[in-house]
Design goal:
- It contains six helices and 47 strands.
- By secondary structure, it is mostly beta strands.
- It has five domains: 183 residues, Jelly Rolls (Sandwich), CATH 2.60.120.260; 108 residues, Sandwich (Immunoglobulin-like), CATH 2.60.40; 263 residues, Glycosidases (TIM Barrel), CATH 3.20.20; 85 residues, Immunoglobulin-like; 95 residues, Immunoglobulin-like (Sandwich).
- The strands form eleven sheets. It has a nine-stranded parallel sheet with strand order 25-24-23-22-21-29-28-27-26, covered by helices on one side.
- Helix 3 packs parallel to helix 4 and helix 5 runs parallel beside helix 6.
- The structure holds beta-D-galactopyranose (GAL).
- Beta-D-galactopyranose binds next to loops.
């Protein structure tokens, strides 16, 4: 199993070792972690009887996690459709030889309140859909026979649980939508690891490692060993005696420091170098537990000069992200979560993402670590603050978020206020104190919408939707939302609107670039998202993204992309479609986002215009958009060619057909290989384009799919194109083989792709 698939520390109780075959002996690491994502039985009609171990669940649906309690259309559905109580059951048998050890069940995320039963015994209810939770199963385990876990999952919008209690502008959906596992440990075990690199710029970096040991029974003296690894290579090592302990409810922290790290490679945006911290707990020289976590050596601080990474100012340029997807809500597996990070980094060239408005998938965060993408992570919530017990849950959310994610080098700021809520002194003193106590190495922020708000955090993080922006009212200042609902834009909107959407993002970033005290800006938002009926465009979608829900770009995406250095990629993205008609003939200004310094425009092969970046309008952006009058003459209409020059050299050429003919039908899969675990999924995009592969925004055919082999379609079939494009997702079933997808366009024929679906590692049965 890949290292990134190690389970990260969860709230209070962790899991953290590689998957083992069900019949494996106790591993060298001392712990066993059994992912348990396949073989669940699911019903939408729970009953008390179904919690009992001997209940016959053969009639229930067989499902794999991540799971959505219902599949939905991509828009135009009722938010009540996923708001119901369901029941999940999973039968399992533990391998021999584990008696005497402790068994925990670790859930990474289930929406919204999970009441967990083992062998008919109720263990408790966990309230919260975005944070991990665990229960101990040990006293109720049948070591020799079958065990049955049952989860009664309440996916209604419960007013006692953040973010609910009032209206919110997003949907949470329902289901056990993240992975889970069983963890079998010794009576003393590693509950969590927190590794903090320090003095990273001094030439003498060190690593403070706090190891949290949980004692479930009195223990004899033990020994802790901490090793820093670069791949397989040992970089440093330290050990420490752990005194005998009487059983305690709380994990006991033990601190060690690794020194002599003079040669470590820093984690930065261009080279996000990752190390692994391995921690071993030994009793009489026998390893009784082992855990590991990836880390990066970097110094990340907001100062009155902006945001500094490793002592250098980095102007933050990013987008907010909801982790929801069409048809299935949040129930997407690692591959698809990771893909969003790739899109943000590689397609949108962002350097920061905000996990609005909740802790997001660990897979997404892992990818941010690997790609060099900074993250502002925040607790669940939206404008509403509930009563005392609601606030207690929210403070607990702070702790669970931080204890799960504190080793991610990508995370630079904890968001510890309910997004855009009113002030609440006592509550926010508590959330800030919790964050600072747990993680003194990171600053806090808290996203607000009014500058007069009481400032209890380290960084003033502000949703400012005005233009011009308000001046910073605090030396440490970051804009966390702009544009969004002030200018919703669909891929099918007219050119004037698409252009203005692009310019609004550009104008804000231009102003942010004008003043070093703006640490940067995170625009609303990356991807269109499903929402409640009282928000959005009337079809349960907020069209606020620079990409649509299928992660297909609007022209505003081109602005973000164009801000990268040409050495990364030479970018040239028009904010218009080259289509004859009312929307393009005579349009007063043509906008092109590019990091070139000069553009030439040819129509039908004839040079019609040249342009330089519009530095009059965008005085501060390094790569100002080009704004020009394009002389369009209906009598000399033809293909458009745009040439991009840097330092006099032609570096990029793009062509757009003037024919107005749907020419090509493309089918593009993000991946051609999946794992047969019932959950692994990839996106398949389809587009109708001109002869030069430019999307034709008015193409609206219905695409019909046939799928053979061990996979299923997540999505509409047929799928009516939106703005010339669309996407479905292909999810592997639990058999290995080859899946063949055929897509038929009504006139442009068919396209095929083949996906290889490989055998997954075994799981407990
Ligand atoms: C903000 C809010 C976001 C989203 C956005 C739409 O006020 O924080 O969640 O609703 O508006 O522009």
């Amino acid at each position: 199993m890949d290292r990134r698939d190690f389970l990260k520390a969860t709230s209070g109780l962790i899991a953290g070792a590689a998957a083992l075959p069900a019949n494996a002996q106790q591993a060298q690491s001392g712990r066993n972690v059994f992912p348990l994502n396949r073989g669940w039985r699911f019903t939408r009609t729970p009953s008390d009887a179904a919690r009992a171990p001997r209940f016959d669940d053969a009639g229930f649906e067989r499902v794999a996690l991540p799971h959505a309690n219902v599949r939905l259309p991509w828009h135009g559905f009722d938010e009540k459709d996923f708001a119901f109580v369901s029941l999940y059951r999973r039968r399992f048998k533990l391998p021999a030889g584990l008696r005497g050890r402790h068994v925990f069940v670790d859930f990474e995320g289930a929406m919204t309140a999970s009441t967990v039963f083992i062998n008919g015994v109720r263990l408790g209810e966990y309230k919260g859909g975005f944070t991990p939770f665990s229960f101990e199963l040990t006293p109720h385990i049948d070591w020799d026979g079958d065990n049955v876990l049952a989860v009664e999952l309440d996916s209604t919008e419960r007013a006692d649980i953040p973010p609910f209690g009032d209206r919110i502008d997003y949907l949470t959906f329902g289901g056990i939508y993240r992975e889970m596992s069983l963890r079998v440990v010794a009576p003393s075990f590693l509950e969590n690891i927190f590794a903090v690199p320090k003095d990273v710029l001094t030439g003498q970096p060190a690593l403070d490692v706090t190891c949290f040991i949980q004692h479930l029974a009195s223990s004899a003296p033990m020994r802790l060993e901490v090793t820093l690894l670069d791949g397989d290579k040992v970089i440093a090592h330290a050990a420490k005696a752990v005194p005998a302990s009487a059983a305690k409810a709380e994990p006991v922290p033990h601190a060690l420091t690794l020194t002599g790290l003079g040669g470590v490679t820093l984690w930065d945006l261009a080279q996000p170098h990752l190390y692994t911290v391995q921690v071993r707990l030994l009793a009489q020289d026998r390893v009784i537990d082992e855990d590991r976590s990836r880390i990066g050596f970097r110094q990340a601080r907001f100062t009155d000069r902006g945001f500094e990474l490793n002592g250098k100012i980095v102007k933050l340029r990013g987008l907010d992200r909801h982790q929801t997807f069409p048809f299935i809500g949040q129930a997407m597996p690692a591959r698809v979560q990771r893909r969003d990070a790739e899109i943000l980094k590689q397609n949108l060239k962002c350097n920061i993402v905000r996990t609005s408005h909740y802790p997001q998938s660990r897979h997404f965060l892992d990818a941010c670590d690997e790609l060099g993408m900074l993250v502002l992570e925040e607790i669940p919530g939206w404008q509403h603050i509930g009563d005392k017990s609601w606030q207690d849950l929210s403070v607990d959310n702070v702790a669970r978020m931080i204890r799960r994610d504190w080793n991610h080098p990508s995370i630079i700021l904890w968001g510890v206020r309910i997004n855009e809520s009113k002030d609440n002194h006592d509550f926010y003193v508590r959330t800030n104190a919790a964050a600072h106590a747990l993680d003194p190495s990171r600053q806090t922020g808290g996203i607000r919408w009014f500058q007069e708000s009481e400032f209890l955090e380290d960084v003033f993080t502000m949703n400012d939707f005005d233009f011009p922006l308000k001046p910073p009212n605090h030396p440490l200042y970051l804009n966390t939302e702009f544009v969004g609902h002030t200018f919703p834009t669909k891929t099918i909107d007219n050119v004037e609107r698409l252009t203005e959407h692009t310019l609004r993002h550009a104008r804000i970033h231009d102003q942010l670039a004008s003043n070093p005290q703006y640490a940067g800006g995170i625009g609303w938002c990356a991807f269109d998202y499903n929402t409640h009926g009282n928000f959005g465009s009337g079809d349960h979608v907020c069209y606020h993204g620079v990409m649509d829900m299928f992660r297909e770009p609007k022209p505003a995406a081109g602005f973000y992309k164009s801000q990268c250095e040409p050495s990364d990629e030479v970018v040239l993205e028009p904010a218009f479609h080259w289509a004859i008609g009312d929307q393009s003939i005579g349009f007063s200004k043509a906008v092109v986002c590019s990091n070139c310094d000069h553009l030439k425009f040819l129509i039908g092969g004839k040079l019609v215009a040249e342009a330089d970046p519009d530095r009059a309008q965008f005085r501060h952006l390094k790569y100002a958009p080009f704004v020009l009058e394009l002389p369009v003459d209906i009598n000399h209409w033809g293909d458009l060619t745009i040439e991009g020059y840097i330092g006099g050299q032609r570096r990029i050429v793009k062509h757009y057909s003037g024919a107005g003919v749907d020419k090509k039908f493309a089918l593009i899969a993000d991946d051609l290989a999946l794992i047969a675990d019932g959950a692994d999924t990839t996106r398949v995009v389809f587009r109708v384009t001109d002869a030069f592969d430019a999307i034709l925004p008015f193409a609206d055919g219905a695409i019909r799919f046939e799928l053979d082999g061990p996979a299923e379609i997540i999505g509409d079939n047929p799928f009516a194109l939106v703005g010339g494009t669309g996407a479905i997702w292909i999810r592997a079933k639990e058999q290995a083989g080859t899946a063949r997808l055929t897509a038929h366009h009504p006139r442009l024929g068919l396209q095929r792709i083949e996906l290889k679906i490989a055998q997954p590692p075994p799981q407990l049965i």
